[in-house]
Amino acid sequence: MKLLADENMPYVQELFGDWADITTCPGRDVSPEQLIDVDVLLVRSITQVNKALLAKANRLRFVGTATIGCDHIDTEFLTERGIAFASAPGCNKVAVGDYVLAALLKVAVHKNWQLKHKTLAVVGVGNTGSQVVQRARALGMKVLQCDPFKALSCPQSSPTDFVDLKQALTADIVSFHVPITRGGAHPTWHLLGKAEIAELKSEQVLINACRGEVWDNAALLARQLSNTPLTLVIDVWEDEPNVLVPLVPHVLLATPHIAGYSLEGKARGTFALYQALAELEQLTPAHSLAQLLPAPAFTRVELAACLDQPLLARLVGLVYDINLDDAAFRAALGQPGFFDRLRKQYPERRELASLQLVLDTITADPAQAQALGFKV
Ligand SMILES: NC(=O)c1ccc[n+]([C@@H]2O[C@H](COP(=O)([O-])OP(=O)(O)OC[C@H]3O[C@@H](n4cnc5c(N)ncnc54)[C@H](O)[C@@H]3O)[C@@H](O)[C@H]2O)c1
Ligand SMILES: O=C(O)[C@H](O)[C@H](O)COP(=O)(O)O
């Protein structure tokens, strides 16, 4: 079979090499002509898979996206054409949890905050949002959950578990984890719009690690240029790979849509498609995910101290230093193609779970360390 894959997808050769002739190319450059005679198309979030792209795809029978978000795929059209489809729900949720934890610890230093005295609202409590809820609770924070769909399906939970967006937006820190939707009962396009931004207090912190269009970036810039700017952490931007350049100096942490870019997260994405294709074609998968991943740089730390905020920040920084991503973003900002280049050349990043903490159980709580994302 002939397979075309985004060149930024790791382990395609290792996993699909026995089954297919593989061609790779930049995700933004996939053209209708390249899809002639292709049986399998594997993409990430930057390839728009729609009627126009598939106009000449005479043999295509499987499309897979190695991502959580599926907003770049016209799934109705795939169904109409009888083309099987798979995505990778949850593949990089742990990486997003790591990213937000790293960001929270930087915010705490910047604002001189003890996080355990602060409230975090999570907007969208699915795979990635739940990771953030878990970590924030492990930090001792008060957590508000905002998810009208989840609230409906959890009638047994205490009424204080879920709040509406208006209440969520009163928290010290608000982290967004919704898909981008333009219709339905609770659309998320510009969920944080001009009116919501106007209500926020200047002490508040906002984090966006879901999709850029969930926030009105122009309205945010206007707010940042006022006398009462907010503290912002932005991983995803409206109209990527373009970035509203004047906004960047007014953002505490700015990164190029890499919250989910752990090696494990990307590998899980490719692996999910490997399993889906195996099922569709009734092939026997011969590889395991664990075999593919190299050993991490740091595997084990013994601790005799209490896992307080400064120590936690050092441990997280050992595995994932978010400042490096922010510095690389600012250094490259404005260069042609900088956004895609940073993503393509992204250094190997491991998840916190790759580091085992050996704790003195008198001074530290293993359950807390595990909930923060470490192996214990
Ligand atoms: N920055 C990154 O690298 C990165 C990585 C992974 C995912 N993402 C993005 O994050 C999104 C969320 O990922 P996920 O795995 O948590 O998805 P998910 O589908 O597991 O969870 C999304 C949650 O949002 C809720 N939701 C939908 N509309 C809402 C609204 N108006 N208000 C509040 N909640 C709402 C849903 O009920 C659901 O529980 C993805 O769709 C993707 O676009 C970004
Ligand atoms: O939806 C997702 O899974 C993420 O946004 C994903 O990490 C985006 O990375 P990309 O597919 O653009 O490489």
Task: Explain what this protein looks like in three dimensions.
This protein is of the alpha/beta class and 376 residues long. The chain folds into three domains: 2-87 and 262-292, NAD(P)-binding Rossmann-like Domain (Rossmann fold), CATH 3.40.50.720; 93-254, NAD(P)-binding Rossmann-like Domain (Rossmann fold, 3-Layer(aba) Sandwich), CATH 3.40.50; 300-371, 2-Layer Sandwich (Ribosomal Protein S8, Chain: A, domain 1), CATH 3.30.1370. It is built from 14 helices and 13 strands. The chain has helices at residues 12-16, 75-81, 93-111, 127-138, 148-153, 165-168, 194-199, 217-224, 263-281, 289-292, 309-319, 322-332, 338-344, 366-372; strands at residues 2-6, 21-25, 40-43, 62-65, 84-86, 119-123, 142-146, 173-176, 205-208, 231-234, 253-254, 300-303, 356-359. Helix 3 packs across helix 4. 42% of the residues are buried. Nicotinamide-adenine-dinucleotide binds next to helix 3, helix 4 and helix 5.
